[in-house]
Design brief:
7-stranded mixed β-sheet; Rossmann fold; alpha/beta; 5-stranded parallel β-sheet; 16 helices
Length: 437
């Protein structure tokens, strides 16, 4: 039987009907769902750098999403169809991310994209997703201060990563004099604003703050400054290849974790595998997940990942989010029985839960961010992390850091936001769910 556009739209009426009943009118631009529904597969974009300076970590996100797709397809796929990954390599270049995102949405007709790592890359693609009403699932920790209806943020935000970490450094490690060093782009600078707000609250001080061009790997001058600065802890927001270079040069200089520990919300098992465990030994990372988490779900996850990618492969926090967000997308499609963007945005993805390797997680119904756990790990001789702190419960995501933005919130269930989203995208610059209380 030939499937017509009319028949496709009839088949999605149940999913869209709930949106209409809730008072949230479908967005003015609805992508051609007939093509997606008529296909033999459900196309999902995978947009992570497989080359360039960020590939060291982004490749693991790509791998985790493909692993999840394999698992989903092995169990029958989604709505009786296999997920077909459409892979693009943006080469660690911001403009290439934007070009590839447009291709995935407009030429490949994917139902959603799993992608990006840096905030710069995410911000380069968001206008494209908003203009063309696409769905982006973004798995990286980030600085917050953003809320787009077209993006679902599955990585940690500052209140889930920094609010426990900074006072723990001060009170447990007894280190109060912070030397801030980061890559010269959005995430490190905004994160350090949040760190400085927490230092003011808990009695810490900033000895120095400096940024290196993204991709730079020469840190001898920086390390000389650190050694003579009087700091007792380094807070690092360096990323990608920079992490490996900095830790190696830090050790070569002769500074140990007992002297001046490096504390970071970035460094994972992936970078430690690249640099060698001896270079990270004793330094600290704050994340929602480590490979060393003890749970049946994590043991299964690690075993499957190693079986697919090799016994020496390691898991890490950002790729764990990439892994579970793939399942969240599949569950959302099954829930609404549709690949329509509005059905996924307003009904399918909000509230989705999953028993992830780190523990139970959930996409918040209001702000499209994810409830996660808070862990602190100390790097050991095996290149893994000994978990030295774990939050008592999962933590509600607050995309607008309360110490800096006490009156801002993000709520896609607020009637004021719903009214604003009914307008054509070009009629209003603010397409977010942000409101001031």
């Amino acid at each position: 039987m030939r499937i017509t556009r009319r028949r496709v739209l009839q088949g999605t009426a149940a999913g869209l009907g709930g949106i209409l009943a809730s008072g949230v009118a479908p967005y003015h631009f609805v992508r051609n769902i007939a093509k997606a529904a008529e296909g033999d597969t459900i196309k999902v974009g995978i947009l992570h750098s497989l080359s360039g300076t960020i590939a060291i970590i982004e490749t693991s996100l790509h791998n985790a999403e493909l692993l999840a797709i394999d698992e989903i397809n092995a169990k029958g796929g989604v709505m009786g169809k296999k997920i077909e990954p459409v892979v693009e390599d943006p080469q660690s270049m911001v403009q290439v991310f934007a070009d590839k995102a447009k291709k995935l949405l407009l030429e490949d007709n994917v139902v959603a994209v799993l992608g990006c790592y840096t905030s710069a890359s995410r911000q380069s693609v968001l206008p494209i997703f908003e203009e063309h009403n696409g769905v982006l699932l973004y798995p990286t920790l980030y600085e917050g201060e953003e809320c787009s209806k077209n993006c679902f943020y599955t990585g940690a935000v500052p209140n889930q990563q920094l609010e426990d970490f900074v006072p723990w450094i001060i009170n447990t490690l007894g280190r109060k004099n912070f030397y801030l060093i980061g890559a010269n782009y959005i995430y490190p600078k905004e994160t350090n604003r949040e760190v400085k707000a927490l230092l003011k609250k808990y009695g810490g001080t900033v000895v120095a703050e400096e940024y290196s061009p993204l991709g730079s790997t020469e840190f001898s001058t920086n390390i000389n400054k650190i050694a003579s600065s009087g700091c007792d802890v380094v807070f690092s927001d360096l990323v990608g290849d920079q992490v490996v270079a900095f830790y190696k040069q830090y050790k070569e200089y002769g500074i140990t974790a007992k002297d001046i520990p490096i504390c970071t919300p970035i460094t994972t098992e992936q970078e430690i595998a690249a640099m060698g465990p001896e270079n990270a030994l004793g330094h600290y990372t704050s994340f929602d997940y480590f490979q060393s988490v003890k749970s049946p779900e994590n043991e299964s996850f690690v075993a499957k990942y190693k079986a697919k990618y090799g016994k020496d492969a390691v898991t890490n926090a950002v790729m764990e989010c990439a892994y579970f967000q793939t399942f969240l997308l599949a569950q959302a499609i099954e829930k609404v029985k549709s690949t329509d963007a509005d059905a996924l945005i307003f009904q399918g993805l909000p509230g989705q839960e999953f028993q992830a390797p780190e523990g139970k997680i959930k996409i918040d119904e209001k702000n499209h961010h994810t409830w996660l756990w808070s862990l602190i790990g100390r790097a050991n001789e095996e290149g893994q992390f000994d978990i030295v702190y774990k939050s008592k419960d999962w933590i509600h995501p607050e995309p607008w850091f309360s110490l800096l933005y006490p009156h801002k919130t993000c709520d896609f269930t607020d009637p004021r936001v719903v009214e604003r989203l009914k307008k054509p995208w070009s009629a209003e610059k603010d397409r977010s769910g942000t409101i001031s209380m």
